[in-house]
Amino acid sequence: TFSFVTTLGQGDVWAFAIICVFSGAALGADMTLLPAMFSQRLKTLQCGGGQAFGLWNFCTKLTLAVAAISVLPALDYAGFSTQNVNPPQALFVLTFSYAVIPCILKIFALAVLYWTPIEETQYA
């Protein structure tokens, strides 16, 4: 649903709000399912809880660092400024990095998840 942000123009506040509501609901599922799947996978691999917690936090911080290292210089190169009116190419880079790249990464993650074998277990 968040990919619809690319179709918005200046002042489309209500449309953006609707997109954010639906994206927020999907994000809630994302924030719940990923740790649960990670936990189940670690149970299968018999890893320690401390190692798992450290790995999860490391991956979370690493993704934020990679995003900042890659997106902020690209925005600067495109001429994006928080103080002035931005040129069209700066707004395009902002939109692309804010909406398109995350959707592409999510599709890639879904493809990896689809092709990753997950063992079914019986729960008591």
What characteristics describe this protein?
124 residues; mainly alpha; 3 helices
- Oligomerization state of this entry? single chain
* Biggest pleated sheet: none
Compressed to H and E, one letter per element, the order equals HHH
Helix/strand class: mainly alpha
As for the number of domains, it is 1
Count of helical regions: 3
Shape: elongated
Radius of gyration (CA) equals: 19 Å
| Low-confidence regions | none
Mean pLDDT: 84
Helix content: over 70%
End-to-end Cα distance: 36 Å
β-strand amount: under 5%
Number of strands: 0
In short:
With about 120 residues, this protein is mainly α.
Protein described:
The chain has 124 residues and is mostly helical. It has one domain (2-115). Helix content is 73%, strand content 0%. It is built from three helices and no strands. The mean pLDDT is 84.
